[in-house]
Design goal:
The protein has 510 residues and is of the alpha/beta class. Helices cover 39% and strands 20% of the residues. The mean pLDDT is 93.
């Protein structure tokens, strides 16, 4: 039982049904005696205690008649964190000072932090002692290459220790990760069943989108249940050798999910925290061998070969410090992969590849097989130079499709992805050759259309660099769940017609 200040008269809990995303918010009347006696004001951080649980929340002041005297209102995240029912007694008090904020301030001013400092910060974030503004300060202070490799290693250790870990008691557990920035590059749901069909163990946990129109977990959620507990995950992997789950449901490096939520709001993805995020999740999930895919392109997340090599070196250095076997592959990031950009549209691409359909996007198939083959060679499952052929064989003989279905059913279900009710075609106004496609602007278009919040929303792309196009040919189709977001995406496209750059055909004079 935690401490409850007996001198205070309890307030009565009221569920307000307000979605504040993940931040814990409480609401008090402006004339509430507790505000005056404790000196609370709007945006104060308050220790909220029920008879069984406690948490730190941010206070909002209500001036209308939303609350009766003696009531305290709760946002949905706060209500669920404290496991409340209406009229439960609630006590409020001042939380202890957050000592780790001194480390955050030190990092803001450019000082290096050790593992003790990072552990203190991460523990306080996981315990809910930081408001979003505090987490944002930490995320920003660690951005723009402000973390050394030793600091990234310390941060990774801290993130692992703050959550649960899984030990499979196996000498070989494989995993892969793409650093992102390439729309439609949804290779993981193809690679996992290929490798599992080869007899490898691959307990794949993935994140939701941070700054992109879809993450692997978002896409897989249109096909099966991805919210697995650790026990469920263990059972699926025991049955099928692999899983395709959302990492946030298992408290594997839980700080990572809290950091990602703020990074998403800030629309940033710092390299140091990227490495710590990826490797903490891999190690927590029990991986021994990891393949990292870094797409490189002028409009990808990593724009130059020099930047890619620098990131790859950091990945290798930190992995070595952590005792993890890791290989980095630099890949082509000049244009989107597949046809679909957005959870459901990417899922349809995945199904087409796994089912060996004639309309399957061949670039997605080749990329997935290349990565799966690299992993097979990395762990010496096949001889050097034989990995690609082996991966293609498993895919083309139907083994990967059968394994994918088995994994989905083991996770609880397999269903067809949704289809958007609203669509708009963008056509070509000149004949010529596609010379460039802007990854960032296409991703932005898909997000304006509603992805990933609306899983059926996104962009369907019908051309690649080098394709010959003609007048009135459809270049892409915008998919949306409602007409408002469809209009937003169309307006953005009209303002950025150069996102698909076409070199007109030259007139031939006789």
């Amino acid at each position: 039982m935690h401490f409850i200040p007996e001198r205070m008269t309890p307030l009565k809990a009221l569920r307000l049904g307000i979605d504040t995303h993940h931040e814990l918010i409480i609401y008090l009347r402006a004339d509430c005696p507790v505000c005056r006696s404790e000196g609370f004001s709007a945006m104060s951080r308050v220790l909220v205690s029920s008879e069984e649980h406690h948490a730190i929340a941010t206070l909002n002041i209500v001036t209308g008649d939303l609350l009766k005297k003696g009531q305290i209102g709760f946002s949905e995240p706060a209500w669920q964190r404290l496991y409340l029912q209406n009229d439960n007694p609630i006590w409020l008090s001042h939380p202890k000072p957050v000592q780790s904020m001194s480390y955050v301030r030190a990092k803001v001013y450019g000082h290096k932090l050790d593992e003790i400092a990072f552990q203190s910060i991460i523990n306080d974030i996981v315990d809910g002692r930081y408001a979003d503004v505090h987490v944002a300060a930490f995320v920003t202070a660690c951005g723009d290459k402000n973390l050394s490799n030793d600091e990234i290693t310390a941060l990774t250790h801290a993130m692992i220790k703050a959550g649960s870990t899984i030990d499979w008691n196996l000498p070989l557990v494989v995993d892969k990760h793409c650093v992102g920035g390439l729309p439609g590059n949804r290779t993981t749901p193809i690679i996992v069943p290929i490798l599992a069909a080869c007899g490898l163990t691959m307990p794949k946990t993935s994140s939701r989108a941070i700054t992109s129109p879809a993450g692997t977990a978002d896409t897989m959620e249109t096909l099966t249940n991805v919210c697995l507990s650790q026990d469920m995950m263990r059972n699926v992997v025991k049955q099928q050798g692999a899983c395709l789950a959302w990492g946030g449901s298992m408290r594997l490096s839980p700080a990572d999910d809290l950091l990602i939520q703020v990074e998403r709001a800030l629309d940033i993805d710092s390299e140091g925290q990227l490495i710590a995020s990826v490797l903490s999740k891999k190690i927590a999930a029990g991986a021994t061998h990891v393949l990292i895919d870094i797409p490189v392109g002028t409009t990808a997340k990593i724009r130059t070969p020099e930047a890619a090599e620098q990131l790859a070196d950091s990945f290798r250095s930190v992995a070595k410090n952590l005792g993890l076997s890791l290989q980095v592959l630099l890949s082509d990031g000049s244009q989107p992969v597949g046809k679909g950009i957005g959870p459901a549209l990417e899922a349809y691409d995945i199904l087409a590849v796994l089912q060996n359909r004639s309309d399957a996007p061949q670039d997605l198939k080749k990329r997935a097989c290349m990565l799966a083959g690299t992993m097979l060679e990395m762990i010496e499952h096949v001889k050097p130079g034989k990995g690609l052929a082996k991966a293609q064989q498993v895919l083309e003989n139907g083994g990967a499709w059968r394994k994918f279905q088995a994994i989905c059913y083991a996770q609880g279900e397999f269903h067809i992805p949704p289809i958007a009710p609203y669509r708009y075609n963008i056509v070509c106004h000149t004949s010529g050759t596609v010379v460039s496609i802007d990854n960032r602007k296409l991703a932005q278009t898909a997000k304006l259309a509603g992805a990933p919040a609306d899983p059926e929303a996104g962009v369907e792309l019908f051309v690649k660099i080098g394709h010959k196009v003609s007048i009135n040919q459809i270049l892409l189709t915008i998919h949306a769940a409602n007409i408002g977001e469809l209009n937003y995406a169309v307006e953005f496209l009209e303002e950025h017609k150069d996102m698909i750059l076409i070199e007109p055909e030259k007139e031939v004079r006789h």
